[in-house]
Design a protein that fits this description.
The protein is α+β, with helices and mostly antiparallel strands and 110 residues long. The protein has one domain (14-109): PVUII Endonuclease, subunit A (PvuII Endonuclease, Chain A). Helices cover 34% and strands 37% of the residues. It is built from 4 helices and 6 strands; from the N terminus they run H-E-E-H-E-E-H-E-H-E. The strands form 2 sheets. It has a 4-stranded mixed β-sheet with strand order 1-3-4-6. A two-stranded antiparallel sheet has the order 2-5. Strand 3 and strand 4 form a beta hairpin. The longest helix has 14 residues, at 72-85. It is globular and about 40 Å long. The N and C termini lie far apart (51 Å).
Length: 110
């Protein structure tokens, strides 16, 4: 029996966040509780090789201004911090452009 394996590059996953200038990228419907739902929500971050955050011009939202590359561990730490502080069982976890610029590296700039 012949089995096929997928090349490793095809198995890598990436998450993409985006916003316009002055906005924030977000992961919606992230569970704080119960613990098993929280762990499941956080896999949206941990399953990725990288996370990219694209910022579009406010006056031309089809034109990309900058893209930041973020490490999943960095995004995970911020997501967990926000979930821990949330009063809700389900939250949107937001990442500002300033946060991305401090914690990521620019991989594209217009």
């Amino acid at each position: 029996m012949l089995t096929r394996t997928r090349p490793a590059i095809l198995m890598k996953k990436y998450e993409y966040l985006s916003c316009k200038e002055g906005g924030s990228g977000q992961l919606d419907r992230m569970f704080k509780t119960p613990p098993e739902r929280r762990a499941e929500s956080l896999t949206r971050i941990t399953r990725n090789a990288k996370i990219y955050f694209a910022v579009f011009y406010a006056d031309n939202q089809t034109r990309c201004k900058v893209i930041y590359e973020l490490e999943p561990d960095t995004v995970l730490a911020e997501a967990e911090r926000q979930l821990d502080r949330s009063r809700n069982a389900i939250s949107h976890v937001g990442f500002s452009v300033g946060w991305a610029s401090r914690n990521g590296r620019i991989v594209y700039e217009d």
